[in-house]
Fold:
Amino acid sequence: MTDRRTDPSLQDLDGTLLLGAGVALAVASIAGLAGFVMCGIAVITASRRWYQRVDLPPHEIANLKWRQARAAMGAGAGAWSDAERSGYSPRSRGKR
Structure:
């Protein structure tokens, strides 16, 4: 039997490669965080501009949006059932 070791060791790891990977991950994390913050600022700014343009109190905006969502849901359900009725032909039973 030989005296060669077959178990992994920390000496097998390339330290400079691990350091480079860590730096790359840190830079990517900072860039991602900056992008997330910029996206959040854009959404908040757009929301504030929209709210200023609407000139309605928040409860009226909520009621309006709720009515719009219910109307869209009803229209979608109606279109779905119309398409189902016009395009669906049941298989005849007993024929093979």
